[in-house]
Amino acid sequence: EDQVTQSPEALRLQEGESSSLNCSYTVSGLRGLFWYRQDPGKGPEFLFTLYSAGEEKEKERLKATLTKKESFLHITAPKPEDSATYLCAVQAPQGGSEKLVFGKGTKLTVNP
Amino acid sequence: DGGITQSPKYLFRKEGQNVTLSCEQNLNHDAMYWYRQDPGQGLRLIYYSQIVNDFQKGDIAEGYSVSREKKESFPLTVTSAQKNPTAFYLCASRRNQNQPQHFGDGTRLSIL
Known about the structure:
heterodimer, B: mainly beta, seven-stranded mixed beta sheet, four-stranded antiparallel beta sheet, 49% strand
């Protein structure tokens, strides 16, 4: 069974304190790994897609990396507005279609 | 602006009542999806549709029904058979299997 595990469940940082979120996965035939940001009461907002081990993507203070078993979302010098829940999802073929399997998310709080 | 519109934002259901959640997209995306989000759990797939007039059950389809009569619309009905309907419901769409899914801002369903 395809599984996605995100850690930690919650993370508190001081403004400017860099850290990383982890997404480990077990799937057969990874077709893509996606990172989303979700604010309270809102739908997930797409951040990155990673397709193969060694790939990296960057956007402002965020950088996503991918290995064969996990992905990291690195947050450099975070600001309070980076506070949100970050979701990881993997895409793998299931029964002739491509489905997303989501992790439970990491709730990030950045204190000023 | 192009996007995905879910309505209503909040919905209340009485015992024995069916309710319908609306999802409309003007992104010209072929595929559309319905997810359920509960506290402490990852998004779970209810139904998806890859083309008009066709849809498939996801992982938790029992107690739900959908239709896809138009490319831009994918309504979800929560029937009285769904005994635990209280949740945050998210609709998503994507152009094809190589693109990320994009989400609406959700409908929160509660029981009266």
